[in-house]
Each structure stands twice: as C-alpha cells, then as structure tokens.
Amino acid sequence: MSKFRQQLLPSDLVLRGAFLFFIGLLVILPVAAISFEAFRSGPAELWKEISGPQALAALWLTVRMAFIMVLINVVSGTATAWVLVRNPVPLKGLINALIDIPFAIPTVVTGMMLVVLYGPTSVLGTFLSSNGIEVVFDRPGIVLALLFVSFPFVVRAVQPVLMEMDSDMEEAARTLGAGRLKTFFQVVLPTLLPAILSGAALSFSRALGEFGSIIIVAGNIPKRTQVASVYIYGEIESGNARGALGVSVVLLAVSLLVLLALNRLQKWSRRYERS
C-alpha cells in the first residue's frame, strides 16, 4: 500500500506541473526579473539610487507608518476578534461580514472616504484642524489609510484560534483566584501570540505597498507624506526607472524577510503545540 501511495499517477504529475508553472509565472519570474534589472548596472549604482535623500525619506516614512499601524492593529484587531467570539453582540453576522469590506473596496475609494470624513471641508476635519490636528495631507492620514486596508488581517488570524481554544485552562486560572486580566495575559495571550504575530506580519507587508488610498489622503509631499510606493510611481512618471527599481527591490526584500520570519514563527508554533 505504501509503495502504491508513493507512485505518482499521470494526473498527479499534471497537477504538480500546472502548480509549478503558475507559481513560476506569477511569482518567481516577476521577482527574478525585477531583481535582475535592479542589479544589472551593479550594486554601486543601485545603492546610489536607494541612498538618495528623497528615497531614504520615503522608505523610512513607509516603515515608520507601517510599524505604528501594526501596533494599533494588533490591539484593535485582537480586541475585535475577542468580542466577536466571546461576547454576545447585536448583528454579529453583519459586523463579521463588514470586517472584510477593506478587501473588497478599491483602495482609491478608501482614500476618498477618508477625505470626505476628515477633509478640511468636513465637520470632523474642521473640528480637528481647529484643535491643531491635521489628518488629510499629513501623516495621521497615512496611518488611518493603512489601518483601514489592513484591519482584517489580525482579526481573521486571531478569530479561529479563539474559536478553537479550550476554556478549561481559563476556568482553572479563575478558580485559583486569577482575575480576568491576569488570566488573559498569562493563559490566553501565549496561545494567541503566534496568530497575532502572523496577522501583524501580513498587515506590515500589506502596508509597505499601499498606494491608492495614501496618494489621495496624504498626497505626494517629498520628505513629509511621500511613502515608498508613491515615490516609485513618481520616479516612473519622471522617467527615472532606475530609481524606481532600487526602492522597489528594497520593499521586496523587506516583505520577503517579514514573510520568512512569519514562516519560521509558524513552524516554531507547531513544534511548541506538539510538545
């Protein structure tokens, strides 16, 4: 029986071949092409494009805004998943469906919604401006746009873990006198941590490449609101493909490192659960 299972049928070979073809066509070849093109003029030329003041400012702003967004998203996403799973909420089915709306709405529409809500002519935007808080065409707008487009990642990563979690350990901790907060941080959080970090990593990677909503909400002000994706677009429009390639490769490398770290985390989590 084991020999029979090890033998590949013609249909299995076709399926594997199709899988490798599409992975190569859609992922491997584009990554290889942009990497080759970026390094074709040599590392020195690539470094020159990356290390320019405007490019460095755009990259640094992108990483900072994404990191701030992740910190907020981890707390709000975990809390949302907790409420949806552990608390009775009116219209829970509708709210659960609304969480996935950012996946369906074009990011340009996201930007327009935020401008309508927080723009200088809106009631809320006028109130915030009168108190010294600028959202549109400033960095808070970037964080809000990133929060909107990446909010579902943490929720959807944590939610199934909460649904499958056995409540016996929580009840035992409370029986021994632990309060709700102590039970959460000492019993629940260690179990949720791999899922939270997984959602955070996906949110961070998604934020690195966000373009549509940010260009509308934050504009394209160099060294202030110009993120890396908008910088790349500007370099292409101005005919400097080399500069666009350099920053693109940096974003690609950071995203790959984050996803590799996520993969290692998931392997560690599986080993931890088995032990």
What would your notes on this structure say?
The protein has 275 residues and is an all-alpha fold. The chain is built from 14 helices and no strands. The protein has helices at 2-6, 10-39, 43-50, 53-86, 92-98, 101-104, 107-118, 123-130, 139-164, 168-175, 180-208, 212-217, 228-237, 241-274. α2 packs across α14, α4 (53-86) crosses α11 and α7 (107-118) packs across α9 (139-164). It is globular, with a radius of gyration of 23 Å. The two termini are 30 Å apart.
Supply the key terms.
single chain, 80% helix, mainly alpha, globular, 275 residues
Give the overall silhouette: globular
N-C termini distance: 30 Å
The portion of residues assigned to helices is over 70%
Calculate the mean pLDDT score and round it: 86
- Sheet with most strands: none
Q: Show unreliable segments.
A: none
Secondary-structure element series: HHHHHHHHHHHHHH
Which structural class best describes the helix and strand composition?
Answer: mainly alpha
Tell me the strand percentage band. Answer: under 5%
Total helices: the number is 14
**Number of E-state strands:** 0
Rounded Rg: 23 Å
SSE blueprint:
Elements: H1 2-6, H2 10-39, H3 43-50, H4 53-86, H5 92-98, H6 101-104, H7 107-118, H8 123-130, H9 139-164, H10 168-175, H11 180-208, H12 212-217, H13 228-237, H14 241-274
Helix pairs in contact: 2-14, 3-14, 4-9, 4-11, 4-13, 7-9, 9-11, 10-11, 11-14, 13-14
